[in-house]
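User: Please predict the structure of the protein below. I'd like the answer in structure-token form so I can feed it into my own downstream comparison script.

Assistant: Understood. Taking the following sequence of 249 residues as input:
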Amino acid sequence: LALILATQRISRPIVNLFVSRDLGGSSAATEAVAILTATYPVGHMPYGWLTEIRAVYPAFDKNNPSNKLVSTSNTVTAAHIKKFTFVCMALSLTLCFVMFWTPNVSEKILIDIIGVDFAFAELCVVPLRIFSFFPVPVTVRAHLTGWLMTLKKTFVLAPSSVLRIIVLITSLVVLPYLGVHGATLGVGSLLAGFVGESTMVAIAACYVYRKQKKKMENETAAEGEDSAMTDIPPAEEGTEVVEMREEND
């Protein structure tokens, strides 16, 4: 988890560096970095809180062995947690599309809250609209991270942070050849990094799930064999029954 947090902290400086160097340190580069600086906090508002969903599973899942506060009468199940997660994601997506796709709403937020002029606010519209798609990978990552925290299997998350940086840098290098530059390049690359990270987390969760399922199947098979063995009468008892029948004859 510390490695994941570290990669999250260095992602934005990497984006600023590549965006600035892509434009050759010109006035356009300065403008692009300024747009990124203005759009980061505004774009983060509707989805940033989704990261805390990772705390739901450890707090409420009754199957968590370390959760001593959960009583047997607790009605919270994995299905409830999944529904809650989906509702949170839907709410965040709705906020994003209302704030960033409704005409003049994002500009008004930038002018009134950030304090920029209208011309600068217009340059931030496209990057903010890209932020609208962040809730999906962020929710997937947070939900599965919480589940893995419950199982104490967070070590499988380490490759996801590495993949995020790889995808991020690859996007920052490749997208300029496709005509994407400036703040759009930065936010688009961030989105690609998030998607890559959440995909790797999903793969890790599937791996852990299959191992857990296989372990449960093996335990069930072992219990079945044990119960079958206990149903067979001991050999000595069978011999005594035969001897008693011979005496009666």
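That's the full token string. The radius of gyration is 28 Å.
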